[in-house]
């Protein structure tokens, strides 16, 4: 893993996520436990990269990607770093590519990390 990862453009707190997804805060915590969403502590507060939420939903392929990264031994910080490391063969970073037509390619690459 390289150290040239970018930081997400915007971080959302869990209450922000609850509001955006129209969920209760306990449901957001359940999404974190179920690996449907990822959060890391920034300034002592759990935060989610805004790029991983499209409008009022979590990016479609994110839960699968998170499962693959965890299966490959990545912790949450490492997974965020991987998602936000620029890749010249993708439109920016894997996180950006997840919201477009290259989501399957990102999934393939995450899957290869386990081997």
Automatic annotation (TrEMBL):
One Pfam match: Rv2175c_C
GO molecular function: DNA binding
UniProt domain Rv2175c C-terminal: residue ranges: 60-114
UniProt xrefs under InterPro entries: Rv2175c_C, Rv2175c_wHTH
Source superkingdom: Bacteria
Boundaries of every DNA-binding protein Rv2175c wHTH domain copy: 5-52
Name of the protein in its database record: Transcriptional regulator
Organism: Planosporangium mesophilum
């Amino acid at each position: 893993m390289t150290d040239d990862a970018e930081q997400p453009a915007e971080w959302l707190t869990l209450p922000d996520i609850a509001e955006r997804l129209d969920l209760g805060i306990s449901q957001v915590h359940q999404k974190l436990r179920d690996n449907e969403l990822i959060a890391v502590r920034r300034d002592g507060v759990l935060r989610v990269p805004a790029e991983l939420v499209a409008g009022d939903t979590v990016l479609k392929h994110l839960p699968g990607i998170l499962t693959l990264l965890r299966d490959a031994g990545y912790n949450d910080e490492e997974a965020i770093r991987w998602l936000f490391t620029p890749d010249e063969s993708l439109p920016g970073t894997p996180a950006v590519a997840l919201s477009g037509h290259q989501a399957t390619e990102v999934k393939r690459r995450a899957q290869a990390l386990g081997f």
